[in-house]
Amino acid sequence: MAKILKGADVVEALNSKMISQVKELRNKGIIPTIATVRVGEVSDQISYEKAVIKRAETVGVANLQVVLPLDVDEETVINEINTLNNDSNVHGVLIFRPLPKHLNDERIRLALNPEKDIDGITDGSLAGVFSDSDTGFAPCTAKACIEILDFYNINCTGKRAVVIGRSLVVGKPVAIMLMGKNATVT
Fold first, then answer.
1. At what angle do helices 140-151 and 171-180 cross, to 10 degrees?
2. pTM, whole model, 2 decimals?
3. Each residue of 28-50: pLDDT tens digit?
4. Which residues is 37 bridged to in the sheet?
5. Which of 16, 34, 110, 140 is 20 to 30 A removed from 121 (C-alpha atoms)?
């Protein structure tokens, strides 16, 4: 029999866990901070940015917004990312994409330190997913799929799983993460 796995219950549990973790860090004098990097005034990205900030505030995480003009040059973007990479008070960075066409997406993605890549877009983060190591972070949507399975105590060992799609954002990482949970993936 099919079972509907509701994400709202998972979000509530994760929020509760994160609030506790953030409180623990703040008690040690650490203020967890994420930085968002946005180029231009793209309405979809602005909406997503607002949602990210709201979610961060919900769990007590501080946010630093870096907003660059649409016609920014590539070196300026990379310099901003390097500044965030080297800022010990910034613990995670989210770069809004797609970037304007005049910017080299790959070069900018790869400028980000995988340890701060909270969206799982760097090759280092993806390598961490594919090698089942703690390097970087898995792409958010892929990680959410696995969090839902874990929340509902779904044991994947020996199960057959079908993944539709092969993107680096969802399909491939979900398939690899399911294999890491001993599922046979098609």
1. 40
2. 0.88
3. 999 999 999 999 999 999 999 99
4. 66, 95
5. 16
